[in-house]
């Protein structure tokens, strides 16, 4: 049994490309960065804590598979070393988009795969570079009205309308969306889950 520790529909869709069946069991955690915490350390810690919280929730269920494997991920948009979270208002969204406008930034996505007992824990971190064209205030206002930026790190979705701001990208597209497929397949293989082989048995 594979368990996805995320409520993100994007991660669910991406994981579904690799694995036919899995359980979705997100857990709420405190996502506040620690003081002076490096952005890469932060996203890895978030993935590990999400996986741990999901495994703990699962262990309290009456019906459980002791061989269950948990996968969690976290994505942060980073500019000048600052982690941009999800905007809670138009003004926050515009503040973030102004920081990103006309320049490059990093998107750091972490992965954590572990077993139920948390004895075997594997992590990975993927950094991609994304460049934005200049964005006008009018565009920022109109973009906010689409509701797309409201639950997205950095206030944009590369897989949606936010792609109109992206002039170039280097790295992993799937990682920027929310789940790096190459690295996910590699980590799952360490736990005996081989995506293409699994699908060949349909």
Automatic annotation (TrEMBL):
The record marks 10, 75, 159 as: Important for substrate specificity. SUPFAM superfamilies: ITPase-like (SSF52972). The keyword Cytoplasm applies. Its cofactor is a divalent metal cation. InterPro entries: ITPase-like_fam, Maf-like. Keywords: Cytoplasm, Hydrolase, Nucleotide metabolism. It is found in: Cytoplasm. It comes from the Bacteria. Nucleoside triphosphate pyrophosphatase that hydrolyzes dTTP and UTP. May have a dual role in cell division arrest and in preventing the incorporation of modified nucleotides into cellular nucleic acids. This is dTTP/UTP pyrophosphatase. It comes from Marinomonas pontica. The lineage of its organism: Bacteria, Pseudomonadati, Pseudomonadota, Gammaproteobacteria, Oceanospirillales. The gene is maf-2.
């Amino acid at each position: 049994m594979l368990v996805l520790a995320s409520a993100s529909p994007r991660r669910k869709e991406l994981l579904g490309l690799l694995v036919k069946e899995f359980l979705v069991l997100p857990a709420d955690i405190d996502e506040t960065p620690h003081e002076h915490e490096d952005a890469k350390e932060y996203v890895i810690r978030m993935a590990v804590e999400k996986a741990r919280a999901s495994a703990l929730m699962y262990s309290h269920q009456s019906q459980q598979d002791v061989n269950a494997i948990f996968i969690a991920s976290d994505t942060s948009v980073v500019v000048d070393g600052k982690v941009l979270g999800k905007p809670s208002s138009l003004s926050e969204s515009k503040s973030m988009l102004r920081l990103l406008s006309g320049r490059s930034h990093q998107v750091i996505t972490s992965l954590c795969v572990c077993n139920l007992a948390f004895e075997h824990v594997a992590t990975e971190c993927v950094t991609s570079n994304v460049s934005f064209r200049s964005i006008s205030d009018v565009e920022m206002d109109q973009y906010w009205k689409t509701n797309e930026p409201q639950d997205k790190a950095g206030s944009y979705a590369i897989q949606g309308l936010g792609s109109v701001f992206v002039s170039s990208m280097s790295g992993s597209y799937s990682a920027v969306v929310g789940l790096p497929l190459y690295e996910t397949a590699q980590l799952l293989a360490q736990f005996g889950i081989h995506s293409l082989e699994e699908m060949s048995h349909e």
